[in-house]
Design brief:
Helix 6 runs antiparallel to helix 7. The chain folds into 2 domains: 132 residues, Nucleotidyltransferase, domain 5 (2-Layer Sandwich), CATH 3.30.420; 171 residues, 2-Layer Sandwich (Nucleotidyltransferase, domain 5). It has 10 helices and 11 strands. The radius of gyration is 20 Å and the shape is globular. It is of the alpha/beta class. Strands 1, 2, 3, 4, 5 and 6 form a 6-stranded mixed sheet that branches. A 5-stranded mixed sheet has the order 9-8-7-10-11, sandwiched between helices. The structure holds 5'-O-[(R)-(carboxyoxy)(hydroxy)phosphoryl]adenosine (KG4) and zinc ion. The site of 5'-O-[(R)-(carboxyoxy)(hydroxy)phosphoryl]adenosine has 19 residues, from helix 4 and helix 5.
Length: 336
Protein backbone atom coordinates (compact mmCIF):
# COMPACT_ATOMS: atom_id res chain seq x y z
CA UNK A 1 0.00 0.00 0.00
CA UNK A 2 1.29 3.48 -0.91
CA UNK A 3 -1.13 5.70 0.97
CA UNK A 4 -1.92 9.28 0.06
CA UNK A 5 -3.04 11.18 3.16
CA UNK A 6 -4.21 14.73 3.80
CA UNK A 7 -3.16 15.99 7.25
CA UNK A 8 -4.48 18.99 9.16
CA UNK A 9 -2.82 20.76 12.12
CA UNK A 10 -4.76 23.32 14.18
CA UNK A 11 -3.64 22.85 17.79
CA UNK A 12 -2.49 26.38 18.52
CA UNK A 13 -1.94 29.39 16.27
CA UNK A 14 -0.87 27.92 12.92
CA UNK A 15 -3.47 26.60 10.50
CA UNK A 16 -1.65 24.04 8.39
CA UNK A 17 -2.31 21.28 5.85
CA UNK A 18 -0.01 18.82 4.14
CA UNK A 19 -0.33 15.95 1.68
CA UNK A 20 1.91 12.89 2.01
CA UNK A 21 2.10 10.17 -0.60
CA UNK A 22 3.94 6.90 -0.09
CA UNK A 23 5.84 8.37 2.87
CA UNK A 24 7.00 11.44 0.94
CA UNK A 25 5.73 14.81 2.12
CA UNK A 26 4.54 16.74 -0.95
CA UNK A 27 3.94 20.12 0.68
CA UNK A 28 3.49 21.95 3.95
CA UNK A 29 1.06 24.88 3.73
CA UNK A 30 1.08 27.09 6.84
CA UNK A 31 -1.08 30.13 7.57
CA UNK A 32 0.16 31.88 10.70
CA UNK A 33 -2.21 34.00 12.74
CA UNK A 34 -1.21 37.59 13.33
CA UNK A 35 -4.11 38.41 15.61
CA UNK A 36 -2.24 37.58 18.85
CA UNK A 37 0.78 39.92 18.79
CA UNK A 38 -0.71 42.79 20.71
CA UNK A 39 -1.99 40.52 23.51
CA UNK A 40 1.44 39.09 24.36
CA UNK A 41 0.26 35.49 23.90
CA UNK A 42 -2.20 33.28 22.01
CA UNK A 43 -5.85 34.21 22.74
CA UNK A 44 -7.74 30.88 22.44
CA UNK A 45 -11.00 32.37 21.19
CA UNK A 46 -9.23 34.39 18.48
CA UNK A 47 -7.19 31.33 17.48
CA UNK A 48 -10.35 29.25 16.91
CA UNK A 49 -11.92 31.95 14.79
CA UNK A 50 -8.77 32.45 12.71
CA UNK A 51 -8.57 28.66 12.09
CA UNK A 52 -12.19 28.70 10.99
CA UNK A 53 -11.49 31.53 8.54
CA UNK A 54 -8.28 30.03 7.13
CA UNK A 55 -8.82 26.28 7.05
CA UNK A 56 -10.67 25.95 3.74
CA UNK A 57 -8.06 27.94 1.81
CA UNK A 58 -5.16 26.13 3.48
CA UNK A 59 -6.56 22.66 2.71
CA UNK A 60 -7.48 23.76 -0.80
CA UNK A 61 -3.95 24.94 -1.46
CA UNK A 62 -2.43 21.75 -0.06
CA UNK A 63 -4.61 19.63 -2.36
CA UNK A 64 -4.02 21.87 -5.38
CA UNK A 65 -0.21 22.10 -5.06
CA UNK A 66 0.00 18.33 -4.43
CA UNK A 67 -2.08 17.85 -7.59
CA UNK A 68 -4.53 15.61 -5.74
CA UNK A 69 -8.32 15.35 -5.80
CA UNK A 70 -10.38 14.11 -2.84
CA UNK A 71 -10.83 10.78 -4.66
CA UNK A 72 -7.04 10.25 -4.53
CA UNK A 73 -6.98 10.26 -0.72
CA UNK A 74 -6.69 7.07 1.35
CA UNK A 75 -7.12 8.76 4.74
CA UNK A 76 -7.58 12.14 6.44
CA UNK A 77 -5.45 12.91 9.49
CA UNK A 78 -5.78 15.58 12.15
CA UNK A 79 -4.15 16.67 15.40
CA UNK A 80 -6.13 15.23 18.31
CA UNK A 81 -4.16 17.04 21.04
CA UNK A 82 -2.52 18.40 23.06
CA UNK A 83 -3.61 21.93 22.23
CA UNK A 84 -6.38 24.50 22.63
CA UNK A 85 -9.83 22.89 22.67
CA UNK A 86 -11.53 25.34 20.29
CA UNK A 87 -8.59 25.28 17.89
CA UNK A 88 -8.45 21.47 17.87
CA UNK A 89 -12.20 21.28 17.23
CA UNK A 90 -11.87 23.28 14.01
CA UNK A 91 -9.25 20.95 12.46
CA UNK A 92 -10.85 17.80 13.85
CA UNK A 93 -14.34 18.67 12.60
CA UNK A 94 -13.03 19.66 9.19
CA UNK A 95 -11.14 16.35 8.93
CA UNK A 96 -14.23 14.39 10.02
CA UNK A 97 -16.37 16.16 7.45
CA UNK A 98 -13.90 15.38 4.68
CA UNK A 99 -13.50 11.76 5.76
CA UNK A 100 -17.27 11.34 5.86
CA UNK A 101 -17.72 12.93 2.43
CA UNK A 102 -14.92 10.94 0.77
CA UNK A 103 -15.57 7.67 2.61
CA UNK A 104 -11.95 7.23 3.77
CA UNK A 105 -10.77 6.52 7.33
CA UNK A 106 -9.69 9.11 9.89
CA UNK A 107 -6.31 9.10 11.61
CA UNK A 108 -5.91 10.94 14.95
CA UNK A 109 -2.38 12.16 15.65
CA UNK A 110 -0.67 13.10 18.93
CA UNK A 111 0.94 16.51 18.34
CA UNK A 112 3.98 15.72 20.52
CA UNK A 113 4.63 12.40 18.76
CA UNK A 114 4.36 14.27 15.48
CA UNK A 115 7.01 16.83 16.53
CA UNK A 116 9.36 13.87 17.04
CA UNK A 117 8.39 12.12 13.80
CA UNK A 118 9.29 15.31 11.90
CA UNK A 119 12.76 13.73 11.89
CA UNK A 120 11.57 11.28 9.23
CA UNK A 121 10.47 13.94 6.73
CA UNK A 122 14.02 14.36 5.45
CA UNK A 123 17.18 12.30 5.72
CA UNK A 124 19.35 11.50 7.49
CA UNK A 125 16.90 10.27 10.11
CA UNK A 126 18.00 9.05 13.56
CA UNK A 127 18.07 5.31 14.16
CA UNK A 128 16.19 3.62 17.00
CA UNK A 129 16.42 3.95 19.88
CA UNK A 130 17.05 7.69 19.95
CA UNK A 131 16.74 10.33 22.61
CA UNK A 132 14.62 13.35 21.70
CA UNK A 133 14.44 16.67 23.55
CA UNK A 134 11.08 18.14 22.52
CA UNK A 135 10.89 21.83 23.31
CA UNK A 136 7.88 23.92 22.36
CA UNK A 137 5.59 26.67 23.58
CA UNK A 138 3.43 24.15 25.42
CA UNK A 139 5.81 21.29 26.32
CA UNK A 140 9.29 20.35 27.38
CA UNK A 141 9.96 16.62 27.30
CA UNK A 142 12.79 14.12 27.15
CA UNK A 143 11.62 11.09 25.19
CA UNK A 144 13.20 7.72 24.42
CA UNK A 145 11.98 6.84 20.92
CA UNK A 146 12.05 3.06 20.54
CA UNK A 147 10.12 2.90 17.28
CA UNK A 148 7.96 5.17 15.11
CA UNK A 149 4.98 4.86 17.43
CA UNK A 150 6.64 3.50 20.55
CA UNK A 151 7.96 6.26 22.81
CA UNK A 152 8.58 6.72 26.55
CA UNK A 153 8.63 10.12 28.24
CA UNK A 154 11.53 9.98 30.75
CA UNK A 155 11.49 13.62 31.85
CA UNK A 156 9.26 16.65 31.50
CA UNK A 157 8.53 20.08 32.86
CA UNK A 158 6.65 20.30 36.12
CA UNK A 159 5.37 23.81 35.35
CA UNK A 160 6.02 26.11 32.38
CA UNK A 161 7.36 24.97 29.01
CA UNK A 162 10.69 26.42 27.92
CA UNK A 163 9.05 28.23 24.97
CA UNK A 164 6.68 29.83 27.44
CA UNK A 165 9.68 30.95 29.51
CA UNK A 166 11.21 32.56 26.41
CA UNK A 167 7.90 34.24 25.51
CA UNK A 168 7.16 35.50 29.04
CA UNK A 169 10.68 36.88 29.45
CA UNK A 170 10.30 38.65 26.12
CA UNK A 171 7.03 40.17 27.29
CA UNK A 172 8.72 41.41 30.50
CA UNK A 173 11.26 43.37 28.42
CA UNK A 174 8.52 44.69 26.14
CA UNK A 175 8.96 42.45 23.09
CA UNK A 176 5.83 41.26 21.20
CA UNK A 177 4.56 37.67 21.02
CA UNK A 178 6.05 35.24 20.10
CA UNK A 179 9.17 36.56 21.83
CA UNK A 180 11.37 33.45 21.56
CA UNK A 181 12.69 34.22 18.06
CA UNK A 182 13.23 37.88 19.05
CA UNK A 183 15.28 36.95 22.13
CA UNK A 184 17.33 34.73 19.83
CA UNK A 185 17.89 37.62 17.42
CA UNK A 186 18.69 40.29 20.06
CA UNK A 187 21.02 37.88 21.88
CA UNK A 188 23.34 37.92 18.90
CA UNK A 189 26.46 39.86 19.92
CA UNK A 190 25.33 40.03 23.57
CA UNK A 191 27.37 38.77 26.53
CA UNK A 192 25.77 35.52 27.81
CA UNK A 193 27.76 35.68 31.07
CA UNK A 194 26.86 39.22 32.09
CA UNK A 195 23.79 38.27 34.15
CA UNK A 196 22.98 34.96 35.83
CA UNK A 197 19.57 33.41 36.32
CA UNK A 198 19.35 30.34 38.56
CA UNK A 199 18.64 26.79 37.42
CA UNK A 200 15.93 24.96 39.35
CA UNK A 201 17.07 22.21 41.69
CA UNK A 202 14.74 19.70 40.05
CA UNK A 203 16.21 16.22 40.59
CA UNK A 204 16.50 13.61 37.85
CA UNK A 205 15.33 14.37 34.35
CA UNK A 206 12.44 16.75 35.03
CA UNK A 207 12.47 20.48 34.29
CA UNK A 208 11.08 23.56 36.01
CA UNK A 209 11.09 27.04 34.49
CA UNK A 210 8.84 28.99 36.85
CA UNK A 211 11.77 29.94 39.15
CA UNK A 212 13.91 31.43 36.40
CA UNK A 213 10.90 33.33 35.08
CA UNK A 214 10.22 34.90 38.49
CA UNK A 215 13.92 35.66 39.05
CA UNK A 216 14.01 37.38 35.65
CA UNK A 217 10.88 39.41 36.42
CA UNK A 218 12.30 40.70 39.74
CA UNK A 219 15.71 41.34 38.23
CA UNK A 220 14.28 43.52 35.46
CA UNK A 221 11.84 45.26 37.82
CA UNK A 222 14.65 46.22 40.26
CA UNK A 223 17.06 47.22 37.50
CA UNK A 224 14.47 49.47 35.84
CA UNK A 225 13.69 51.10 39.22
CA UNK A 226 17.35 52.09 39.48
CA UNK A 227 17.73 53.08 35.81
CA UNK A 228 14.70 53.60 33.57
CA UNK A 229 16.78 52.96 30.43
CA UNK A 230 18.29 49.72 31.72
CA UNK A 231 16.46 47.39 29.31
CA UNK A 232 17.09 49.48 26.20
CA UNK A 233 20.74 50.04 27.05
CA UNK A 234 21.44 46.36 27.80
CA UNK A 235 19.00 44.42 25.65
CA UNK A 236 21.59 42.25 23.88
CA UNK A 237 23.27 41.20 27.15
CA UNK A 238 19.90 40.60 28.86
CA UNK A 239 18.68 38.39 25.98
CA UNK A 240 21.98 36.53 25.65
CA UNK A 241 22.15 35.88 29.42
CA UNK A 242 18.56 34.66 29.68
CA UNK A 243 18.94 32.50 26.58
CA UNK A 244 22.14 30.99 27.91
CA UNK A 245 20.48 30.16 31.27
CA UNK A 246 17.54 28.43 29.57
CA UNK A 247 19.77 26.54 27.15
CA UNK A 248 22.01 25.38 30.03
CA UNK A 249 18.97 24.07 31.91
CA UNK A 250 17.95 22.05 28.85
CA UNK A 251 21.47 20.81 28.13
CA UNK A 252 22.06 19.63 31.73
CA UNK A 253 19.06 17.29 31.57
CA UNK A 254 19.80 16.19 28.02
CA UNK A 255 23.38 15.21 28.88
CA UNK A 256 22.20 13.45 32.05
CA UNK A 257 19.57 11.51 30.06
CA UNK A 258 22.05 10.49 27.35
CA UNK A 259 24.55 9.24 29.95
CA UNK A 260 21.85 7.42 31.95
CA UNK A 261 20.35 5.66 28.94
CA UNK A 262 23.62 5.20 27.05
CA UNK A 263 21.89 6.45 23.88
CA UNK A 264 24.07 8.40 21.45
CA UNK A 265 21.49 9.17 18.81
CA UNK A 266 20.28 12.55 20.04
CA UNK A 267 17.53 14.64 18.44
CA UNK A 268 15.86 18.00 19.00
CA UNK A 269 12.23 18.72 18.15
CA UNK A 270 9.60 21.44 18.62
CA UNK A 271 9.53 25.19 18.05
CA UNK A 272 12.36 26.09 20.46
CA UNK A 273 14.75 23.84 18.51
CA UNK A 274 14.84 26.74 16.03
CA UNK A 275 16.89 28.58 18.71
CA UNK A 276 20.40 29.19 17.44
CA UNK A 277 22.13 28.89 20.85
CA UNK A 278 20.38 25.59 21.59
CA UNK A 279 21.27 24.20 18.16
CA UNK A 280 24.92 25.21 18.65
CA UNK A 281 25.02 23.80 22.21
CA UNK A 282 23.65 20.42 21.09
CA UNK A 283 26.17 20.18 18.27
CA UNK A 284 29.12 21.23 20.48
CA UNK A 285 28.17 18.97 23.37
CA UNK A 286 27.42 16.23 20.85
CA UNK A 287 31.01 16.34 19.61
CA UNK A 288 32.35 16.05 23.14
CA UNK A 289 29.98 13.19 24.04
CA UNK A 290 30.23 11.31 20.75
CA UNK A 291 26.58 11.82 19.80
CA UNK A 292 25.05 11.74 16.36
CA UNK A 293 22.84 14.86 16.43
CA UNK A 294 19.64 15.43 14.47
CA UNK A 295 17.81 18.76 14.21
CA UNK A 296 15.03 19.21 11.63
CA UNK A 297 15.06 22.35 9.55
CA UNK A 298 13.14 25.22 11.22
CA UNK A 299 10.03 24.78 9.00
CA UNK A 300 9.56 21.30 10.51
CA UNK A 301 10.45 22.39 14.09
CA UNK A 302 7.64 24.90 14.63
CA UNK A 303 4.01 23.76 14.29
CA UNK A 304 3.28 22.37 10.83
CA UNK A 305 1.07 19.75 9.18
CA UNK A 306 3.96 17.93 7.45
CA UNK A 307 4.85 16.35 10.78
CA UNK A 308 1.20 15.35 11.30
CA UNK A 309 1.24 13.79 7.81
CA UNK A 310 4.45 11.87 8.62
CA UNK A 311 2.94 10.51 11.85
CA UNK A 312 -0.27 9.64 9.98
CA UNK A 313 1.73 7.67 7.41
CA UNK A 314 3.19 5.42 10.12
CA UNK A 315 -0.22 5.04 11.78
CA UNK A 316 -1.78 4.12 8.43
CA UNK A 317 0.84 1.38 7.90
CA UNK A 318 0.03 -0.02 11.35
CA UNK A 319 -3.73 0.16 10.70
CA UNK A 320 -4.29 2.66 13.52
CA UNK A 321 -7.47 4.42 12.43
CA UNK A 322 -9.75 6.54 14.61
CA UNK A 323 -13.43 5.79 15.33
CA UNK A 324 -16.04 8.18 13.93
CA UNK A 325 -16.90 9.53 17.37
CA UNK A 326 -13.30 10.51 18.18
CA UNK A 327 -13.02 13.84 20.02
CA UNK A 328 -10.09 16.23 20.60
CA UNK A 329 -8.18 15.90 23.88
CA UNK A 330 -6.59 19.25 24.86
CA UNK A 331 -4.22 17.63 27.38
CA UNK A 332 -3.51 14.44 25.45
CA UNK A 333 -0.53 12.57 26.87
CA UNK A 334 1.47 9.85 25.14
CA UNK A 335 -0.19 7.00 26.98
CA UNK A 336 -3.77 8.02 26.05
O1 LIG B 1 6.29 23.96 18.50
P1 LIG B 1 5.75 25.33 18.44
O2 LIG B 1 5.65 26.03 17.12
O3 LIG B 1 4.33 25.42 19.06
C1 LIG B 1 3.92 24.66 20.15
O4 LIG B 1 3.59 23.45 19.96
O5 LIG B 1 3.96 25.24 21.27
O6 LIG B 1 6.64 26.22 19.43
C2 LIG B 1 6.42 27.59 19.59
C3 LIG B 1 7.43 28.13 20.60
C4 LIG B 1 7.14 29.56 21.03
O7 LIG B 1 7.23 29.62 22.45
C5 LIG B 1 8.27 30.35 20.39
O8 LIG B 1 8.64 31.51 21.08
C6 LIG B 1 9.38 29.32 20.40
O9 LIG B 1 8.75 28.12 20.05
N1 LIG B 1 10.45 29.63 19.43
C7 LIG B 1 11.70 30.02 19.81
C8 LIG B 1 12.42 30.25 18.61
N2 LIG B 1 11.58 30.00 17.55
C9 LIG B 1 10.38 29.62 18.08
N3 LIG B 1 12.25 30.15 21.03
C10 LIG B 1 13.53 30.55 21.08
N4 LIG B 1 14.29 30.80 19.98
C11 LIG B 1 13.78 30.68 18.74
N5 LIG B 1 14.54 30.92 17.66
ZN1 LIG C 1 3.97 22.19 18.64
Amino acid sequence: MRPTILAIESSCDETSASVISNGKVLNNIIASQNVHHKYGGVVPELASRAHQRQITDVVDEAMRTANKRPADLDAIAFTRGPGLMGALLVGGSFAKGMAWATGVPLIAVDHMQAHILAHFIESPAPSFPFLCLTVSGGHTQLVVVKDYLDMDVIGETQDDAVGEAFDKAAKIVGLPYPGGPLIDRYAEGGDPNRFRFPDSDMPGLDFSFSGVKTAFLYFIRDAVKADADFVQANLADICASLQSSLVNMLMNRLVRAARQTGIREVALAGGVSANSALRAAVREQGQREGWNCYIPKPEFCTDNAAMIAMAAHFKFLQGEFAPEDIAPVPNLHFAD
